[in-house]
Design brief:
Ten copies of one chain form a homodecamer. Chain A is an alpha+beta fold. Chain A has two helices and six strands. At the A-B interface, strand 2 and helix 1 of A face helix 2 and strand 6 of B.
């Protein structure tokens, strides 16, 4: 799996005094199956708590496109994209979910997380529904 | 990002002896992209536990409209609206979720919370479903 | 807000030896806006853990109807109905959710709880889904 | 409320070394309203962690049918069926949910649980979604 | 219940330094009812945290097919498949859910888990929704 | 199949000068399988264009209940109920749809129509959607 | 059934040269059952092809409210509202659908149409879906 | 493709004086791919207007099971089942729809009809929705 | 209602030898209420059969934005946009549907069509579903 | 737009004596925008009435993949794929629908049909629903 050429850009977090969550859903991820060369399709769901940096939307789009001609196994590519995004933005917390289309009658989803050392989530407030 | 001109009005909380939750869904938020001038659209979801004051519905509607001609980045505008609402009502707890329409094939949601110092949520009661 | 004339009736809890939950959904609540006289509509969701008494279904229906000509603000009427139901049945736990129809482009939901002093919920059993 | 004549049959739990969950959904429960004689309809949802015995599916079907001509209040019949099922299978944990059809514009659901003395659920593993 | 002939294959976990989750949904499981010989159909949902090995997708498909002519009770076959998968991949955690089609008007789901001795899940991070 | 004892009542059509449609959905039909004695459940959907008479709602409910202890095949009972309703109300047009719950893994729906001799439907107006 | 006091207002059709359709959905209709005094609730769906006049939205809202304290049978009230709307706007075509909430376990919908003498709908263009 | 051994049984149409419709949905069809031996899964939807005979439900279930070990292409097997059902029941009209599960990322549905010579459908009555 | 300044651009129809359909859904239309100045929101649905010209997507987006500060009644603005699009592309057939958000508890949809003189739609082919 | 290199393969129609329908849904079409080079994604829906030939599923999959690196406008590529499929299979009737993902806030769908000269569809049989 060679390196995608596009780089991820960032901008300063406008509210670093707070832990808050950013969610991005990217329904148009596509790469190639390393065994068969067949195109694979997935929806990526990214969730993160920014620290000093937020990921810039347009560069994220270009980064995601850069996988279009890459061979990539489901488990490996999810962990790699998470790693790239975490290195670029150094978030307090980040989770990436990749929901792949059916292959051989089986649907696969991979979920991986990154946590900054020493960071802990605030106790959540569960308001009654 | 200049200041919206409309002010938020409040009324006294009719049940201050209790921690209870108010949820408001506002599907008609619109502002402008600061880079391109393109209209952006979002659904705002507000949840709060009032202390002495509740936000008045009509003034909330006018406050939300006041962003229509403002340039505003997703992450910044969500944190700013939360700040304005928290300053106006001084709630025990407040959470604002802004779900933006797709841009560049990517859907973005931002969620931020305010907690009054010293306030803690009651342990939730989870009745079996 | 004058007093609705209908009274809530009860019957003995057939299984007081257990903490168990009763949920009632009432999609036909209607009252009047105190400012404009405009009819307001809501779905009420009641959940409770009975102690000695259960609320009788037909009297609950009549009680709910008695608000039809009452002026009532969203936050106040939810807390008031919860109070009336709690006084009538003295439950171990009770939660009332009122989901109001859209007004001025904004959807409002109010959720309030009553807990009997000294009562604590059993630790919930979360079976894997 | 007289006794239904059908008895519940069981078979040995094939994996007693584990705490695992069995869920059964029975959308065809019907009994009679004791006040009016009107048929009532409900969907039953049964969840349990078996110990030595599992409930046999066909006898469960016949047991459920045996209520067809019984008068039964919502709260009482749910607790009674749970009791019968718990006596027959002596489970580590059992929960019964009865979702009744609308009556008088109100939808009622009753949820009751049985826990074997001394049994505690394993801490649940929540994998990220 | 004789042994299915197909063996499960594995490949090395590409990110063993992390606890991360793999989910696979297999809507095409079919076996036979041991009493009546009638075909049974189920959707299998597999979730696991890999340790050294991941299950290979194509061999999983063939393994699942191998039950097509096997007689199998719901509770027993779910526990057996979980056992086979856990032996083959030695995961940190694994959960198998089998949702069977309706039989006799009753829908049955069985959920079983395997946990590696000494492994504990990280405290989950619940970002506000 | 003996005769249900309840009779259908009617009231005068308040707008006989028009062809207009009345639809009634009755989700709580239950009868018995003549072969096995097993309860069968169906949702009835009635549509009609009244002539001089409309069917009275409460007597319709009682009529439907009267099948609860009747043995009835799917195809025969649908045609019979249609016949009874058509004799009672002498409509310009009537259609009855009976959607039965799954039996033996198969879902059955039966649809039958009655048309008054000489009556023809107006050409429908299809407004663009 | 006495006369509601609110009158329907109109404004000139801005495009009388065309046959075009206006649809209005009014989920908040409520009247009283003439037999029991019980509130009834319905969703009204109005579709029309205007000729010289369109119905003004605010007066329509007030007209609908005026039924709140009126006793009204389902079939009669639907035909009456259609008549009032047709007299006020003299449309080329008008259809009113009233979907009433469940009563006695039965859901009732009434649909009535008005056609201007001599008007015929254009042959519809069905584009392939 | 050899002959399935199970025969279809019938019973006399209880209402031959009418054209009416019977619909059956069979979500549990399975056969084998003739090229790869892989199991294929489909939902069958059968609609027919009976003449002298109706298809008996239990024999239909057994007939459908008899394909479980047959190799069958999608287009051929749909036409063959339609032929068998039409020969057994000699209906006025029959339509069979087979919706196959995804294979190679493509979902296939096949729909075929049989019409008795000389039979024509009544002009349908489209009541306004 | 003054004239929006943006012009609609077109490109040559790549398949003028055929009648075929283009559908565009534009969920982000916003204008102002001429009475109150309140923002209105709608989803536009455009369907057309092109003749010599197709509407260019980016110019359509800009044209739609140009209404953001225009006062516009529902019925008038739908007919006007249809007129502008028809003048720009001279289609064989065009239909515009505007689904407006709720105002005063009422949802309004307006649908208007343009047909080129002398053009008639091909008889549609309805394949059995 | 250069020529995709993969060819479509066919097999003989197993039931040429009948007009019947084959539907294929292909959710994984991707090509490139000729202006920006941006990947475009669409779901293709193919419906046809075969004459002598059916399209072979695997070659269809490869044909669809061959567009992955092609620049293609929405309207043109839909008409071209329809042309290729019609030339390869010479069907009695064929319809292709391409539903493209949102671009610039606008969703586009293109639908085109091919009809064999002289072929007419049978009058459809609409069974009452």
């Amino acid at each position: 799996m060679t390196e995608p050429s596009k780089s991820l850009e960032t901008f300063p977090n406008p509210a670093p005094e707070r832990d808050y969550a950013i969610r991005m859903t990217i329904p148009e991820f596509s790469c190639l199956c390393p065994k068969t060369g067949q195109p694979d399709f997935a929806t990526l769901r990214l969730e993160y708590v920014p620290d000093g940096l937020c990921v810039e939307l347009k560069s994220l789009k270009l980064y995601v496109w850069s996988y279009r001609d890459q061979g990539a196994f489901h488990e490996a590519v999810t962990n790699r994209i998470l790693g790239d995004l975490a290195r670029a933005t150094m978030p307090r917390f980040m989770r990436l979910t990749a929901e792949f289309n059916v292959r051989g009658g089986i649907y696969t989803t991979v979920v991986a997380e990154h946590r900054a050392p020493g960071w802990t989530a605030m106790a959540p407030v569960e308001l009654p529904q």
